[in-house]
Design brief:
The complex is a heterodimer of chains A (418) and B (296). Chain A is built from twelve helices and 17 strands. Chain A has a six-stranded mixed beta sheet, with helices on both faces. Chain B has a two-stranded antiparallel sheet with strand order 1-2. Chain B is mainly alpha-helical. Helix content of chain B is 71%, strand content 3%. In chain B, helix 2 runs parallel beside helix 4 and helix 9 crosses helix 11. In chain B, a hairpin with a 2-residue loop joins strand 1 and strand 2. Classes of the chains: A alpha/beta (418), B mainly alpha (296).
């Protein structure tokens, strides 16, 4: 009997491992193909990306795909192709579904490089996947430019070929915490998923809390794909903090809000990464999302503009026309990613990896998404992070002050008074 | 003190859910000697059904039980006749292989049907009640109440009704049951129907409290093994006790271990299982020993 039970336990463990790895092979994904008259002389730049279509990042992955897709549609059909010296190159983008799995992402990037022979790589969604995907790109000396991986460890590996247009994760909560400190908040608790991006957000939150005189009462971590965060929330409830900071991805935001309400945990402000800036959160949790604050890389109401897509608002209108929904910041940063590569190729006047890498290093432009200027580690150091709050079912920018369209509502009333 | 009381209440509520979640697994094992490795997948199907009914018809997950339970009873009944009856009296390895196959097939079928995206069921009454300084999450309290009700009903059914008695008879001594005229195959099919329906009901009740995705099943199967090892096969009071022990342990670990409590809580049931196997391989309440001596 003992052996028998041990066998069962072993079998169960094996089944867990097997099922958590995806068993189905990744399928190539249809994207708006470059509308091109196929002449023999036509020159094409091939780009490749592994982006989640299914899996835990499917929602953010869709925004990323659509962000890339918008640039692709525009560069081929409207702009007339990337200018390299005197010639125009059409662009073809090959995308695969990484299913939210880092090993799959790595395998697909290897396939893009070796089988599809792409010229440049665009990043996947999330730091978690960028971590493994960029390691393969580095191994083959291919440039990977990305707009959806902000975790600090990504840029501490001495990689020469990874460039990120978004504000680094350490700065995510900065403007929100600064604003809340000004409004009189004094204490903060932090919960984060123990993976690269949320860990960087939480590290940053702790240092910004110290900077703005906020006392950190408690820090808790939780595993990937957590099913229930009520243990964390009931612990935090005892501490009665002014601010709750939650670092994770979209579904964690749903869990945090749900658990806070269920346990009658009433922080005066909830700052949650990734979820709040996406209109889908309001759909999922309804009125309970009111007063929730989230960092944002970009909002359509910000005052940036460029010669390619016009103002941020014009970009948003173009996006909505193409995809039938307003852009999230994940979509905008994905478009900006492709645009940065586009500008660098034009400035280098070459498709040579070394020339384009040098051009990216020297890049200093302002786009509809904000300033892009890479530091020696490949991060976009110049761009500030904004903050939004959900007010009356709308996502409104409350920080930084020069882009704000609404005042922060603070403190949030307790659940029973809503 | 407040925190201790709160942790105890949260643990009991979680334990009540675990107890109802494990019933189907434990009764199938106890009555037929089949270890259903696809247990968690039937829970997942219940959760998806509740999600679908709530999306399509705005049906409340608890109200949808009225549809899910009969439907899944039928699924369980047919599954037993078509598949499981063929392996019931075979060596244990066969039952493991077949149910493991069913588990993989179901999880991947649902991945194809619904993607791997996590889904959520929202209910309007997801707030809380305050009682004596302790917070009772409304949804979880309802689940607890429903779990107790289901367990009492199942207990009465097994003890009092004629069919319940034949199920127990089949579990205790197949040969004798056959001799006195019990139709074993029919009894097995009804047992499987009841167990699958119960498991799906547990999944449906769970749906408003956590994300639903195709690969959510295996952790529940593992927890079911732990609870069965704690509480014994097919014993309802045992399932309740085992569920409570696991629920309270998980919540206490995540409440009182600073920083990484939630991570450790997830590991608790596996640590418990290993400890039980080392200390009492036959199970805590004498439970894992087969009820019929000649079955081995």
């Amino acid at each position: 009997m003992r052996h028998f039970l041990l066998q069962i336990s072993l079998l169960l463990v094996v089944s867990l491992v097997l099922t958590s790895c995806s068993l189905a092979p990744p399928a190539p994904v249809d994207e708006p193909a470059p509308a091109s008259a196929d002449t023999d002389a036509e020159k094409i730049i091939y780009l490749g990306a592994a982006v989640s279509e299914t899996g835990r990042f499917s929602r953010e992955g869709k925004d990323t795909r659509q962000g890339y897709g918008l640039w692709l549609d525009w560069v081929n059909n409207e702009y007339g192709g990337i200018k390299v010296g005197d010639e125009r190159y059409k662009v073809e983008l090959i995308m695969y579904d990484d299913e939210g799995d880092p090993d799959t992402a790595a395998r697909l990037v290897e396939k893009l490089i070796n089988e599809d022979r792409v010229d440049f790589l665009l990043g996947p969604y999330s730091s978690f996947l960028t971590q493994s995907a960029s390691a393969i790109a580095e191994k083959y000396g291919k440039i990977m430019i990305e707009g959806n991986g902000a975790a600090q460890p990504l840029f501490e590996r001495g990689f020469q070929n990874l460039f990120a247009v978004l504000t680094p994760a350490l700065n995510y909560t900065r403007s929100a915490l600064q604003l809340l400190a000004e409004k009189g908040a004094e204490t903060v608790v932090i919960a984060y998923e123990d993976t690269a991006f949320p860990t960087s957000v939480a590290d940053g939150a702790q240092s910004w809390a110290a900077e703005y005189g906020l006392e950190v009462l408690g820090v808790e971590t939780y595993p990937v794909n957590v099913a229930d965060v009520s243990g964390i929330m009931s612990k935090f409830k005892e501490l009665e903090p002014d601010i709750f900071v939650g670092g994770g991805h979209f579904n964690d935001a749903v869990l945090f809000i749900r658990a806070a309400k269920e346990l009658d945990f009433n922080p005066k402000a909830m700052v949650i990464t990734v979820g709040p800036s996406n209109p889908k959160l309001i759909e999922e949790v309804g009125a309970d999302s009111e007063y929730v604050i989230g960092p944002t890389q970009w909002e359509a109401s910000m005052s940036y503009a460029d010669d390619y897509f016009g103002t941020a608002a014009e970009y948003a209108a173009r996006y909505e026309k193409l995809w039938g929904e307003p852009p999230t910041y994940q979509a905008a940063e994905s478009t900006a990613t492709a645009l940065a590569l586009h500008i660098a190729i034009e400035q280098a006047a070459s498709l040579d990896t070394d020339a384009v890498r040098t051009a990216l290093r020297n890049l200093d432009v302002v786009t509809f998404y904000g300033p892009i200027n890479f530091d020696e580690k490949g991060r976009n150091a110049g761009k500030p992070m904004g903050a939004i709050q959900i007010q009356n079912g709308e996502i409104l920018v409350v920080a930084p002050t020069n882009a704000a369209v609404a005042d922060l509502n603070y403190p949030a009333p307790p659940w029973k008074d809503r | 003190m407040d925190q201790l009381l709160q942790a105890l209440v949260s643990g009991l509520l979680l334990g009540g859910f675990y107890a109802v979640m494990v019933l189907g697994f434990s009764v199938i094992w106890g009555v037929m000697g089949v270890i259903n490795l696809a247990h968690g997948e039937f829970l997942m199907i219940g959760a998806y059904l509740a999600w679908g009914l709530s999306r399509l018809f705005g049906l409340d997950p608890f109200a949808s039980l009225a549809l899910i339970v009969p439907l899944m009873f039928l699924v369980g009944y047919l599954l037993q006749i078509v598949l499981i009856n063929r392996i019931v009296e075979r060596p244990h390895l066969m039952t493991l292989l077949v149910t493991f196959g069913v588990s993989i097939a179901l999880a991947n079928l649902f991945k194809i049907l619904f993607d791997a995206d996590p889904r959520n069921v929202a209910v309007a009454y997801n707030g809380s009640l305050q009682l004596a300084g302790v917070t009772f999450p409304i949804v979880k309290t309802i689940i607890f109440g429903a779990a107790l009700l289901i367990m009492v009903c199942l207990h009465l059914f097994l003890q009092r009704s004629r069919l319940g008695k034949s199920i127990r008879a089949a579990a205790q001594n197949k040969t004798a049951a056959r001799i006195v005229g019990v139709d074993i195959n029919r009894v097995y099919a009804i047992t499987a129907g009841i167990c699958i329906a119960l498991t799906a009901a547990a999944g449906a009740m769970l749906s408003p409290t956590q994300a639903i995705f195709p690969f959510m099943g295996p952790p529940f199967t593992l927890k079911a093994v732990t609870i069965t090892a704690l509480g014994g096969l097919g014993r309802i009071p045992g399932a309740l006790m085992g569920g409570m022990v696991l629920g309270i342990t998980e919540i206490f670990v995540s409440t009182y271990v600073a920083g990484i409590g939630t991570n450790l809580g997830v590991a608790t049931s596996f640590v418990l299982l290993v400890l039980i196997l080392i200390v009492r391989p036959q199970g805590i309440m004498g439970g894992l020993r087969p009820l019929e001596p000649e079955a081995e």
